Amino acid sequence: MATIVIPSASYPSGTKTAAEVAVPTGLSFAALSLSRNAWPDIGSDVLKFDCEISFDNGFNWTFFCRFTAAGGDVITNRDGVTVATASAIAFKIPQPENSQRRIRFTVETFATITTTITIDLN
Amino acid sequence: MSVKRDAIGPSSAGAAAAAATSLTFAHAIAADATNRLLTVGVAIGRNPDSVTLGVTYNLVAMTSQAKVHTNNSTIGFVEMFSLKAPATGSNNVVITVTGGTADIESGGVSFKGVDQTTPVSNVTTAFGNSTAPTVTVTSALKSMVVDALANGSSITSSSNMNQWIRNQNATTGGGNGAQSMEAGKASVVMTYLVGSDFWGIIGMTVAWDNVEDVITVPMWPAPCAGAFA
Known about the structure:
By secondary structure, chain A is mostly beta strands. Chain A has a single domain (2-121), classed as Sandwich (Jelly Rolls). In chain A, 0% of the residues lie in helices and 54% in strands. Chain A has strands spanning 2-11, 14-17, 21-22, 29-35, 45-54, 62-70, 86-92, 102-109, 113-121. In chain A, the strands form two sheets. In chain A, strands 2, 3, 5, 6 and 8 form a five-stranded antiparallel sheet that branches. In chain A, strand 5 (45-54) and strand 6 form a beta hairpin. Chain A starts with a strand and ends with a strand. By secondary structure, chain B is mostly beta strands. Chain B has one domain (4-206). Chain B contains no helices and 18 strands. Chain B starts with a strand and ends in a 23-residue tail after the last strand. In chain B, 54% of the residues are buried. The A-B interface holds A 29, 33, 36, 45, 62-70, 74-80, 82, 84, 86-92, 94 and B 10-13, 15-26, 45-48, 75-76, 92, 100-104, 152, 166, 168, 171-173. Strand 6 (62-70) of chain A pairs antiparallel with strand 3 of chain B, so a sheet runs across the interface.
């Protein structure tokens, strides 16, 4: 298992592409989580998060998955009270025996948000 | 010869997003698949679950076949979508939540050899609170039954042919989702083993296209002209 943490930072509106992350052989699952620190409610999405994957050391990239999220206080829990502290996406990474796998992600923000990004590979 | 599975998207682990308004993943349909149908199961966890879903594949809207709330509550639901004759190749399934933010688990199962006039029938739903979500679907030989499940606790396994399982969390009434399939017969029971919790399940028949496979067998040595005259 490997965990990569991108420390808390404030991201103004715009698009940011993170550095590539090498996926060690044997690992086949990724969970990417963004803490919801100061995400304003602008009445629409504040974030679009795209994941891309490469199987050849980053020469070729393929779109893999995406999620979007709104700001403000988000309650999903069954108790109807607990506010979500993170928005996240989870997916299986193919070809666990491939030593040339890499993932990268692009974050597009539509308002200034503060977040810590955590990538768990296992 | 019968309905056959074409592909699972994005993988047997499905895909999930937490506190999200949309989820996108790729589903690849074989270029040589004929008479195709794509099904997408979506499990939603949210309190209250008063949101609506829209699903597209390759930008084409998919049809909602059914929606059922887990244990008839308001903290999660499962909804199954279908699209006949989906484009071949790798294209995106996009799930959009309207009316709020939710926990989403999803995946897709595509089939070939499907009746293109009435591809889906006998849509059946069930809900409960137990360790064995079950729905019984009327079907027929050579057809296929496919289901979609949402559960409040982790989904352990399917008693049928599991296609994908995505366990995300146990904090909602729909934080875990799955899809399975089973060859058609007069009555097909679709069931899972899960952690005891609220569940909702949808089953439906994917109808056979009535086209028998044609197998060409070469003769060797080739018969001479008029050999069978």
